[in-house]
Every structure is written in structure tokens, then in C-alpha cells.
Amino acid sequence: MNSESIEVLSESIRNSEFHAIGLLGFRTVVLQSQPTLKLEVTVRSSNYDQVATKDPRIGCKLIFTYTDMYPHLLPKISLKAKMNFPDMFEIKMQEEFRRIRRLNRGTQFILSIVTRAKDMMDQMVRKLKRKMEATMAAEELDVL
Asked: Is 37:68 a contact under the CB 8 Å cutoff?
């Protein structure tokens, strides 16, 4: 394969992954296309749009900075516009991203990161909700 056909294949892989992310309902924005591609994906907990709820809601934007050699060289990931991130949650997410990076050198890297980030946010919301309920129950016992 010559370098031109590798570039076309890499672009096809990226486009396929962007399409899959969009089909899953994640908002994506191309921030920059030249000289390197930067993609922003908004990831939020499942309850994020339920503004009437008192349950905790978590969200962020994942910024993927691609290399010319994607998927052989994986993109850099950064978290921006974090909403309601508990202490240490970003660190846990970055650790999980490193784990996925080690395991997943294939064409579904971005999709794996995005879906795992959403899963982690939903788990964190459930954990925070349990803590909030336990605190409220303890306060009710103190009042009685």
C-alpha cells in the first residue's frame, strides 16, 4: 500500500467511527481539520437533560487530537468543560483511557473511549445518588 491509499483508508476509518459515535447520540464537532484533526465529543450522564431532578448530573467534552497515522498512532485525549466532576473522577477517567489505549490499538479506539466515559459517568451518578440518599436518611434519623 502506498502512502496515499493509507491516508484514504485512515480517513475512511475516522469517518466510520464519527458516524458510529453520532448514531449513538453523542454530539460531535470538528474543531480543527488542518494541520491535524481535532474532534470534540460531548459526553454526559444519562440523566443530564433531566433538569427537574435533584439527582447529580455529570458531563464533559472529550477533545481528540489525531495524528496523521491514526489508527496506528492513537490520538491525544483531553477533558474540557467538566460539569460536576467529583474529586479524583478525572484521574480515574484518564487511568481508564490509558488502559483502553494499551488494549485497543484498532479502529474503534475513539468509540471505546466515548462509550466507556459515558458508562463511568452513569456509574458515578448512581454512586453519588446513593451517597446523597444515605446522607438524607441519616439527617432524617437525627431529626427524629
From this structure: no
Task: Spell out the long-range contacts of 130-138 with Cβ–Cβ below 8 A and sequence spacing 24 or more.
Answer: 132/54, 132/55, 132/56
Domain ranges of the chain: 3-143
pLDDT tens for each residue of 117-139? 999 999 999 999 998 888 888 87
Q: The CATH number of 3-143 is which of 3.40.50.1370, 3.90.1640.30, 3.10.110.10, 3.40.50.1820?
A: 3.10.110.10
Burial (CB count within 10 angstroms: exposed 0-12, middle 13-18, buried 19+), residue 69: exposed
pLDDT beneath 50: ranges in the chain = none
Where are the alpha helices (H) located in 89-108, listed in sequence order?
A: 89-103
Cα separation values, 122 from 59, 96, 119, Å: 10, 15, 5
